[in-house]
Specification:
Keywords: ATP-binding, DNA-binding, Helicase, Hydrolase, Isomerase, Nucleotide-binding
CATH class of the largest domain: Alpha Beta
Bound molecules: adenosine-5'-triphosphate, magnesium ion
GO cellular component, one term: cytosol
CATH topology of the largest domain: Rossmann fold
CATH architecture of the largest domain: 3-Layer(aba) Sandwich
Protein name: DNA 3'-5' helicase
Strand content: 5-15%
Radius of gyration: 27 Å
Organism: Pedobacter nutrimenti
Largest sheet: 8 strands, mixed
Catalytic activity: ATP + H2O = ADP + phosphate + H(+); Couples ATP hydrolysis with the unwinding of duplex DNA by translocating in the 3'-5' direction
Helix content: 40-55%
Structural class: alpha/beta
Length: 767
């Protein structure tokens, strides 16, 4: 039992007392995840069958890491533990039980795009104003209903909800929800929230099924419990009801998903649900330096709404928190990139010791650009997943249809791709007919002459035959052969092959990569069923982070603070600490929203082990205009004695083409126990008032790629740049987002306003 030696007495108690309900609510870095990990290992060592253990984590990556650790103690047996995110675990269970609730076992999982596309179609059919009934808004509303276990029938019957929607001038939300739910059902599809919502229905309406899983999961553990929503809470409660061997760990100070329905109430409910509850306290932070822990404590002390907790660190006191000011977001990127180069060489660190955390995805652009200029390898977590690329989704839509021809979103996606004369009008007709006769689109497609008029029966028949031939092949061939067959015969490979542009070739290569992935899957020996249907099953749940290829690469990690939960890095940069960005503009008018932003800041700060750097820019392009920014109130909430303030020195490089060959342009101002800097306006206290460059001259020009930095046409664009478009004429780039090759530009065209363009297709000319 050597592994138990790596635990302090409180942790050890929580690990060894495996029976009955237990809860650990403790601060960041105090070993909550470690307790779960060791507890599972301990259970298996004690002889509990790994098949009887269920562990729910917040990300797939977290469960992968945990499993690897457990494997080190108990060996291969760790493979048998049920472990994963709520969504992946219950998708797996629903695959087995779907028929009980009227779904086919090969149901499709609609990703957010599919869901929103369906909502838009419904709004069009109902002829509703898509400004009032904005698709995102409707999606969130339905999502929150489901996460609170409100079905569409209950939604329509609930007088309070109805009154609320009416007073918000959106009385039809309930009807949209109903139509949406019925359409998903007819298509044999579940959206993300359904995976939990339907699990609840399954467990509620089928006591035999509930009993089966209660017997199966004799030991349950939930990490990041503070971020579970009502739907998840209810599932856990039901499953744990028989044996009550349930252990949850969390930190109310890190609850950052209230907007998704996560609820601190779950922690409080837990105490009420289990009067026998064992509560463990963990107070020592093992992750971070004393300075970082104290800063984190002082930040969270500003929140009124929190549970009492003590956190201390026995680690070294460590360096102070570096605060850096930049003049623009691009300048901020440079400062961070240069600091990484310096810290890495002077402290003998690896790139993967560094993380850059930001509030919004759009901020990654400036960071990426600077990292690329210095040839620093990086990886963006939570970015556009490989499986979200258009060409991949197109081919996957054919796979989806092969296994579930009712899948409407898949039909809409590929019925006319590659083009085969089945345009929007035809699709509309099919939808109308399907609705009228209460059958699926696929039924209409298989018998067009029976349901729709017009001269398209021939093409529809061909399409039906094509998909039917895929179904037949899928029965005979292995996963790879089926996939290849579909790629070839659907016409997708040919279509992409004839596109000779760089983008066309990269799309072709992506398809090849997908096929390679399937080939690998088809050759795996550790799973029994290696059919394409199995490969396909939960692809919608995969994220960028789940791809194995660059697992061991030494790269800097870039991610939003939301996705950094639970992780730790030696050296952390939190960027964009500006009012209206962090805290976000939407949060500053209500205490509870502001407190959630502060918890987010707490999460970010507590990711750092040794060194923490905060930065902000005094101007930044936002929503198309160059805005002056003030430093975030969060910086001024930190006691100045923990801070070391650096200010980027304005030099002519700011105005030049590329200031990278110049000497480092920061100097340090040690502020020995100085008074708290007042940061609400103007330059940081104690720093020389730098002359603000004029806005017009600050706009960066196209950079000249430096040696060793692969030239890429899409790279040459920067915000602020004047460009010309074939059709829209002259304009100015006001925003760039996404990463290569999918950089999206917002360009302001005189008289036309902002247009969003994908750089790789837009053929913009720099003027
Ligand atoms: P978070 O709230 O951020 O999720 P956590 O409470 O889950 O944090 P862990 O990630 O489990 O904390 O632990 C933080 C770090 O401290 C990890 O590197 C872990 O290995 C280490 N650690 C935890 N407990 C001990 C211990 N008793 N001895 C040595 N190291 C420990
Ligand atoms: Mg943790």
């Amino acid at each position: 039992m050597d592994y138990l030696a790596g635990l302090n007495p409180q942790q050890r108690a929580a690990v060894e007392n495996t029976e009955g309900p237990a809860m650990i609510v403790a601060g960041a870095g105090s070993g909550k995840t470690r307790v779960i990990t060791y507890r599972v290992a301990h259970l298996i060592e004690k002889g509990v069958d790994a098949f009887n253990i269920l562990v729910l984590t917040f990300t797939n990556k977290a469960s992968k890491d945990m499993r690897e650790r457990i494997m080190k103690v108990v060996g291969d047996e760790a493979k048998n533990i049920w472990m994963g995110t709520f969504h992946s675990v219950f998708a797996k269970i629903l695959r087995v039980e779907a028929e009980k609730i009227g779904y086919p076992s090969n149901f499709t999982i609609y990703d957010t795009d599919d869901s929103k596309s369906l909502i838009r179609a419904i709004l069009r059919e109902m002829q509703l104003d898509d400004k009032l009934y904005n698709a995102n808004f409707v999606y969130n509303r339905i999502s929150s209903a489901k996460n609170n276990l409100v079905s569409h029938t209950e939604y329509l019957e609930n007088k309070e909800i109805q009154a609320e929607d009416s007073s918000n001038k959106r009385p039809l939300l309930g009807v949209i929800y109903e139509t949406y739910a019925k359409r998903c059902f007819k298509a044999g599809a579940m959206d993300f929230d359904d995976l939990l919502f339907k699990t609840n229905i399954l467990l509620k309406n089928h006591p035999d099924v509930l009993n089966k899983y209660q017997q199966k999961f004799r030991y349950l553990m939930v990490d990041e419990y503070q971020d579970t929503n009502f739907s998840q809470y209810t599932i856990v409660k039901k499953l744990a009801a028989a044996y009550q061997n349930i252990c949850v760990v969390g930190d109310d100070a890190q609850s950052i998903y209230a907007f998704r329905g996560a609820n601190i109430q779950n922690i409080l409910n837990f105490e009420r649900d289990y009067p026998e509850l064992q509560v463990y306290k963990l107070e020592q932070n093992y992750r971070s330096t004393q300075n970082i822990v104290e800063v984190a404590n002082s930040i969270i002390a500003n929140n009124k709404n929190q549970l009492e907790k003590n956190v201390f660190s026995d680690n070294e006191s460590g360096s102070r928190i570096r605060v850096q000011r930049a003049f623009t977001d691009n300048e901020e990127g440079k400062i961070v990139a240069e600091a990484i180069v310096q810290d890495r060489t002077s402290n003998g660190l690896h790139y993967n010791d560094f993380a850059i955390l930001y509030r919004t995805n759009a901020q990654s652009r400036a960071m990426e650009e600077s990292l690329r200029k210095l040839n620093i390898p990086y990886k963006i977590y939570g970015g556009l997943s490989f499986y979200q690329r258009k060409e991949i989704k197109d081919l996957i839509a054919y796979f989806r249809l092969t296994f579930n021809p009712s899948d409407e979103e898949a039909i809409k996606r590929v019925i006319n791709y590659p083009k085969r004369g089945l345009g929007d009008t035809t699709v509309e007709k099919i939808i109308v007919a399907a609705d009228k006769y209460n059958i699926t689109m696929w039924d209409v497609i298989c018998n067009p002459s029976q349901y729709i008029e017009g001269r398209i029966a021939g093409q529809l028949n061909d399409f039906a035959l094509l998909i039917q031939s895929f179904m037949a092949e899928a029965k005979k061939l292995d996963a790879y052969e089926t996939a290849l067959y579909i790629a070839q015969h659907s016409g997708i490979l040919k279509e992409l092959h004839t596109d000779d542009s760089i983008e066309g070739r990269s799309r072709y290569e992506n398809i090849q990569e997908l096929l390679n992935g399937i080939k690998e899957f088809a050759e795996r020996e550790d799973i029994e069923d290696r059919s394409l249907a199995i490969f396909m099953q939960d692809i919608a749940l995969l994220t960028n982070d789940d791809r194995q290829d660059d697992k061991d690469k030494d790269t800097v990690s870039l991610m939003t603070i939301h996705s950094s939960k639970g992780l730790e890095f030696k050296n952390v940069f939190i960027v964009g600490l500006e009012e209206n960005l962090f805290p976000s503009q939407m949060s500053v008018n209500s205490r509870s929203d502001l407190e959630e932003e502060r918890r987010l800041f707490y999460v970010a700060v507590t990711r750092a082990e040794k060194k923490l750097s905060l930065s902000y820019a005094t101007s930044r392009y936002r929503w198309g205009t160059l805005t002056n920014c003030e430093p975030s109130r969060f910086i001024s909430e930190i006691n100045a004695r923990y801070l070391e303030i650096e200010v980027a020195k304005p030099t002519k490089s700011l105005l030049s083409e590329d200031g990278f060959n110049e000497e480092r342009r920061t100097w340090t101002q040690q502020r020995e126990f100085a008074a708290k800097p007042k940061m609400s306006s103007g330059p940081a206290a104690g720093s020389p008032a730098a002359p603000r460059p004029k806005t017009t001259t600050m706009l960066p020009k196209a950079h000249v790629p430096s040696p060793g930095f692969a030239p890429d046409p899409a790279n040459a664009f920067q915000t602020g740049m004047d460009v010309e478009h074939e059709k829209f004429g002259f304009g100015k780039i006001v925003n760039l987002e996404g990463s290569l090759p999918d950089v999206k530009a917002t360009v302001f065209f005189q008289g036309l306003g902002n247009k969003q363009l994908l750089l790789k297709f837009a053929k913009l000319r720099i003027v």
